[in-house]
Amino acid sequence: MVALSRKPFFSTFPSISLILLAGSCLLTIPYTGYNHADPSSYLVSADPITRDQLYAQGGFVRDWVAPMPTAPIAGSSVSGGSPGGEKFVVRNWPTTYKNIAIGGNDISFIADPLNATSSGHVMQVNYPKGSYAPSLGPVTGGTQFYAAPFGDKTPFEKIMVSYDVLFPNGFNWVLGGKLPGIYGGTPYEGCSGGIQSTGSNCLTMRFMWRPNGLGEVYAYIPADAESKFCENPEVMCNDQYGKSIGRGQIYFTQGNWNHLDMVMELNEPAGNQNGTLRVYLNGNQVISMNNVPYRSTGMVGFQGLMFSSFFGGADVSYATPVDANVYFKNIQLSVGQPATLYEGTGGSGSPRLAGDLLMIKSVLIFNNHGNPRLTKFYQPIDIATQQALIKEIFSLISKRPDTVCNFLEGSQMLGGQDTRVIYRHYATLYFVFVVDESESELGILDLIQVFVESLDRCFENVCELDLIFHFKEVHDILAEVITGGMVLETDIGEIVAAVQEAGRLSKKPAGLLAQKSPF
What we know:
It is built from eight helices and 26 strands. Helices cover 17% and strands 32% of the residues. By secondary structure, the chain is an alpha+beta fold. It is globular, with a radius of gyration of 25 Å.
């Protein structure tokens, strides 16, 4: 391959590859000649590979392209009106839920900023001044949601995510931010926000931007800081958050579309560290690894798109100092053959890992006046304390404006730092989940949405009166989702079908009482 450079970092070596031996794994990284102190030294291949070529070479069999509108659509944070951008996404993309839990109002669609005459439109994501990690900052900015174009029940052995991203001229990188990628397993079970992968519950692989336009792959996969994977020189491990892969091998330019392709194949058997990762920037391979531990048991595979973009980072030092926008187009996802799930590693046959279930302390619904419409406590608490807790929670969340995030730390009565109160406000009702502090805030928001949509399907546009006059049915629906503080089911179709079947059986006469008397 011939490589071209405006300012070669090593003028005598215009194109080389670094081959590093890390443990028992060969790590090959095409050297781009990139000098961190001089971004203009980034090399560009003379014969970049196209996405179609990657699709053909990678053994992919199914492909999905994210639809874009034919006319501009404003988001509510821009127009002050209805969430048009969010509505377009949930209606035209196979999102896992009908609403976007985080940042739906920060999505809009506009003409291509670099080609106003183009008939196509691009997605614009807005990051208001002061926003950073959605679960932590007082100002919500950016967005995060999941889409499963090939179904949410089928995992896959291979996956490729591709898109173009545009950072406008003058974009302030601050300390970094998230960019879309893929997920495996169940979306709400962690693998973001500091909730680690157990190896059998979930995985996520996203991109990140860093200061000065540096980029990386940001991974939640089951590898602790002492693992062989973390010994790789291109991997930076952090047991509190995700793992940085290939930081600085990617360099984003401002004022131009940057095309990304990320190609992955599961480690198989699951106990082996032989998963593959290849990343291409504008058709040039910048990362290549063959020792990635995407999972540690055979109970998880690649699933779908994780559209995640915000500043952060876990503290205010990541916050954007100004209102900012980033643009996306040509969003595409491809998969190979379905993966076969199995317990254990596939090698030693060790048992399935435990500890991947959510612990929920209570579920509450009350109206705008604080009147409870449903109370379910999964820990033994006396009635007087329950009533005091309900008043405490209502006082905490009823004063919060709708523009702030939907997560807050519990008061001393609720358990203090060990407890999180996560809620959503729908018209006249508050839906509140009180959970352990280790759980994923975004995941719980998605779980609230599952519960609400299940109610909506059962009652056809659920309202406060349904909760009053159909008390038993509401508890039955909740029991299909959560039992004993553990999440049992998140598939809305399965939940509704089970409740309807139970209702049908309860109305059906049975036994001797069902027989007509011959007398």
